[in-house]
Amino acid sequence: MRTLKDECLDRMIFFSPRQLRRALNQYLDHYHTERNHQGLGNQLIEPDETVGSIAGEIECSERLGGMLKYYHRAA
Length: 75
Prior knowledge:
- The protein is about 30% helix and about 15% strand.
- By secondary structure, the chain is α+β, with helices and mostly antiparallel strands.
- Strand 1 and strand 2 form a beta hairpin.
């Protein structure tokens, strides 16, 4: 819960429950599939099949208007 609050909710103002739900869903997608976890040996919880690929250019993708960024290789 603290990570969610520190990385997402403290930086945003919500005007409707729909906006809050969207932000939570975006954050959870980022947290489970894109963010490394120190407590898990810097591993992803639910890695994509392309994780660990060494082919392709490194790209930066963003969620929530750039608050959440992650880097990956282009397919």
